[in-house]
Amino acid sequence: SASRQPLARCHLAATSVALARQMAEAEEARLRRVIAAGARAAARLDTSSTSAKLKQAAGRVAAGATAQHDLALLCSRQGRGSEADRLLRALGMRHRLSVSIFAPPSTATPSPAGLCGAPIVLDGVLPPAVIAGLQRALRPGAAFWEEHGYPTPCFFSYRHDLTASKPPLLLVEQAARLLQPLMERHAADLYPGGGGGDGSAAPRLRTVEWWAHTRSSRRAHHQLHFDLDEATLLSGGGTRHPLVSSVLYLGGRKAAPTMVTTQTLASGSGDAAAEASAFLVRPKEGRLLLFRGDVLHGARRAPPVLVPAASA
After folding, report:
1. How far apart are CA 122 and CA 294, in angstroms?
2. Pairwise CA distance, residues 262 & 283, whole Å
3. CA quadruple 134, 136, 141, 144: dihedral positive or negative?
4. Cα-Cα-Cα-Cα dihedral of 163, 292, 302, 68, to 10°?
5. CB within 10 Å: which end of the chain, N or C, has fewer?
6. CATH architecture of 120-309
7. Positive or negative CA dihedral for 28, 31, 37, 41?
8. Where is average pLDDT lowest: 150-159, 237-246, 248-257, 288-297?
């Protein structure tokens, strides 16, 4: 009955919170076991051992270090910053992301609009039919992934000429053409001086590089990285970044949020990087995220949303 529904929701919320905590506790216990095994292997390392034993011990030491890093990440997600610091210092690290980056969503978080270096978030930028078509083409199990060899350890992407006279054949490229005027209008706003969003001083975009990844829900995050022309870099031609980087969200809020920082390669690392700011953009169907093409960014693993049973 209607009068019993709130009680049912309350029970489900309490169950989900308890399950999430049990899973986190089990994962922490597992990581601590791997760390302990790595420490024991490191203490027993003997250069006189056979190569097979040395390789086995080295593998356990490396696994222990990885587990220690993952445990620090888990502590950060739970707000245990001091413990995360201790674990990371033991690995020789001097800086980490702010614990607030890992906090659950807050409706009180202000929009970054107008802040220096902030990304631009635009909703409802494409017709629903285009979004639906992209969702079908890139859904889990779609032919796109098998025909392109995913999963693959090799990264590859596609480039589309926005100045070509022939109409695009692929739906992704059609979407890029539809988004081109919008991106050109806002591109200048991402850099010092800005353009006011009215198209003044708007750059002309000539090409778009696009790609899509698929991965399991346990690996739904993506490491922090810079977008750059890897072919030019490997040939000794230096670093070249896109003018604008973008993310088009086809899914809802359960997906991993995108973290966009103000750190660039030119700003350096270490203490200089510690001065950078970061913005979290949460997925929403049909949302377009625009940010400078030379800044550090990635997809942060979405934290579990723990809802107190009393508030359900």
Report:
1. 20
2. 20
3. negative
4. 120
5. N
6. Sandwich (2.60)
7. negative
8. 150-159
User: What's the DSSP call for residue 109?
Assistant: P
Confidence class for position 48, pLDDT limits 50, 70, 90? low
Pairwise CA distance, residues 257 & 250, whole Å: 13
Residue entry with tokens 């070509």: 164
Please name the residues in contact with 152: beta carbons below 8 A apart, sequence gap of 6 or more: none
End-to-end CA distance of the chain: 17
Looking up tokens 């590089």, which residue turns up? 209
Dist. CA 205–CA 48, nearest whole Å? 61
Hey, where are the domains in the chain? 2-102, 120-309
Tell me the three state secondary structure of residue 58. Answer: helix
Residue 4 makes CB contacts below 8 A (sequence gap 6+) with: none
- From CA 257, how far away is CA 287, in angstroms rounded? 12
Per-residue tokens: 230: 């890897």
In the block, tokens 């502590």 appear at 75
Using CA atoms, how far residue 253 sits from 13, 138, 226, 281, 282, in Å, is 18, 17, 24, 10, 6
Structure confidence at residue 219 (pLDDT): 62
Give the separation between CA 247 and CA 132, rounded to whole angstroms: 16
Type of residue found at 148: H
Q: Is residue 1 very low, low, confident or very high in pLDDT (cuts 50, 70, 90)?
A: very low
Which band of pLDDT confidence, cut at 50, 70 and 90, is reported for residue 221? confident
Out of 30-34, 71-75, 305-309, least confident range: 305-309
Q: How many angstroms separate the CA atoms of 225 and 214, rounded?
A: 18
* Residues 303 and 255: beta-carbon distance below 8 Å: no
